[in-house]
């Protein structure tokens, strides 16, 4: 797409507001989405601020959209409010719910930034070897969804200084007979591995988004008696062993800025802090312990917070995940078996011994190596058969449909080679 055509498409959605030269005005909210409260497929007239911006401004890079929210440069004006309150718009976060008629305002400067970002393609052209590698990751495919076994070391979503991401390469080579490109519905950390679900149509993506989002929003009220329509199980190798062989971790998480604003990290917070905590709940059970001091855990997140499993393991259970140097640095240092010098250069060393496309080397990184990779793998997922559900309804605007009555899909993903090696070592 040319820069001129991209700008024409962009300005068609984000038009200039004569009220204030600093802002671009998006169209008033008017959308029907899915609400899966009580496992029901039903209609709604609300959406999140992030989704509305992405829908109205498809030519804006997602990294730029997320940056605008992060810098608090996205504002809102309710439909009945014709003038600004005290001369200021309402600041909006990505997850804020918008209702019909709400108007979103973006900084006028994004109009100048858009052509510069659109001038280069999202990802270089893939080679035949790379296409074959990505297609070999597919473990399940039907007309509505696509499920991959994500390799560790490959980011799920593009961003600054990221050459290859799964969402970009999937759009290029995983369309198959579908006219639309597969879309992300949830995330996995760059260094983790395992099951990644993608929607193949706009309808299935909307429904999957609702299922994953609803799982988190309702987890705090779940008393264990209601059937969960979405279940995920991770396998993790940790340093040490929890005091109890199984249990439930319910510890709220919050983000703190470190290194003079250069980076951030997630940590356990409480109501006495100035942070806004997000409830996070994880079930765990010990699978096996070894004489070497390692323990294999099965982790079942009931919520989907950033770095939830890593923080719960490190800060609550006191058993950080092997290869998690962000939250388990001190534990790895005390362990004494690993070379922790020049950790930032470890990726470059792997590239020198590239064994797979995209600079990946899945054979190195076990506990037998000097620098183990993150030992966190999403091994299983259970979710409703979306294809069956959508066959039974004409559209998402139908009144109601019970997703718990739909046949469940149970999918599993094999461990990456370096984790298999660690498994063999700890169980020898």
TrEMBL record:
Signal peptide location: none
A GO BP annotation: enzyme-directed rRNA pseudouridine synthesis
The UniProt record lists the keyword Mitochondrion: yes
Pfam family, one: PseudoU_synth_2
Matches recorded under SUPFAM superfamilies: Pseudouridine synthase
UniProt superkingdom: Eukaryota
InterPro entries: PsdUridine_synth_cat_dom_sf, PsdUridine_synth_RsuA/RluA, RluA_PseudoU_synthase
A single MF term (Gene Ontology): RNA binding
Subcellular location, principal: mitochondrion
Domain Pseudouridine synthase RsuA/RluA-like, chain residue ranges per copy: 145-314
Organism expressing this protein natively: Vicia faba (Broad bean)
Location of the protein in the cell: Mitochondrion
Family listed: Belongs to the pseudouridine synthase RluA family.
GO CC entries: mitochondrion
Protein name listed in UniProt: Pseudouridine synthase RsuA/RluA-like domain-containing protein
């Amino acid at each position: 797409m040319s820069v001129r055509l991209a700008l024409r498409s962009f300005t068609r959605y984000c038009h200039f507001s004569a009220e204030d030269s600093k802002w671009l005005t998006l169209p008033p909210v008017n959308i029907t989405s899915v609400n899966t409260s009580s496992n029901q497929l039903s209609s709604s007239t609300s959406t999140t601020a992030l989704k509305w911006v992405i829908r109205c401004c498809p030519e804006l890079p997602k990294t730029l959209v997320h940056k605008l929210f992060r810098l608090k440069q996205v504002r809102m004006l309710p439909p009945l409010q014709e003038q600004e309150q005290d001369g200021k718009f309402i600041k909006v976060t990505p997850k804020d719910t918008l209702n019909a008629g709400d108007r979103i305002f973006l900084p006028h400067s994004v109009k100048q930034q858009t052509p510069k970002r659109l001038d280069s393609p999202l990802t270089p052209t893939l080679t035949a070897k790379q296409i074959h590698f990505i297609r070999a990751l597919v473990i399940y495919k039907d007309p509505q969804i696509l499920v991959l076994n994500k390799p560790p070391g490959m980011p799920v979503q593009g961003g600054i200084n990221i050459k290859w991401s799964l969402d970009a390469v999937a759009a290029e080579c995983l369309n198959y007979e579908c006219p639309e490109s597969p879309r992300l519905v949830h995330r996995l950390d760059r260094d983790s591995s395992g099951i990644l679900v993608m929607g193949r149509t706009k309808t299935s993506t909307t429904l999957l988004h609702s299922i994953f989002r609803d799982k988190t929003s309702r987890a705090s009220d779940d008393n264990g008696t209601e059937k969960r329509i979405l279940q995920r199980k991770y396998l993790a190798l940790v340093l040490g062993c929890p005091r109890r062989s199984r249990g439930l971790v319910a510890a709220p998480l919050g983000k703190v800025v470190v290194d003079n604003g250069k980076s951030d990290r997630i940590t356990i917070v409480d109501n006495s802090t100035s942070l806004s905590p997000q409830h996070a709940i994880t079930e765990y059970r010990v699978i096996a312990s070894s004489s070497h001091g390692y323990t294999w855990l099965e982790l079942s997140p009931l919520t989907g917070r950033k770095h939830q499993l890593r923080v719960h393991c490190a800060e609550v259970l006191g058993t950080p995940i092997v290869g998690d140097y962000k939250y388990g640095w001190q534990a790895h240092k005390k362990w004494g078996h690993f070379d922790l010098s020049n950790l930032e250069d470890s990726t470059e060393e792997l590239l020198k011994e590239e064994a797979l496309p995209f600079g990946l080397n899945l054979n190195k990184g076990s506990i037998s190596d000097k620098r183990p990779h993150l030992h966190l793998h999403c091994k299983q997922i259970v979710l409703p058969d979306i294809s069956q559900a959508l066959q039974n309804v004409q559209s998402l605007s139908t009144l109601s449909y019970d997703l718990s009555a739909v046949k469940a899909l149970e999918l599993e993903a094999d461990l990456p080679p370096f984790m298999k090696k660690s498994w063999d070592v700890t169980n020898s």
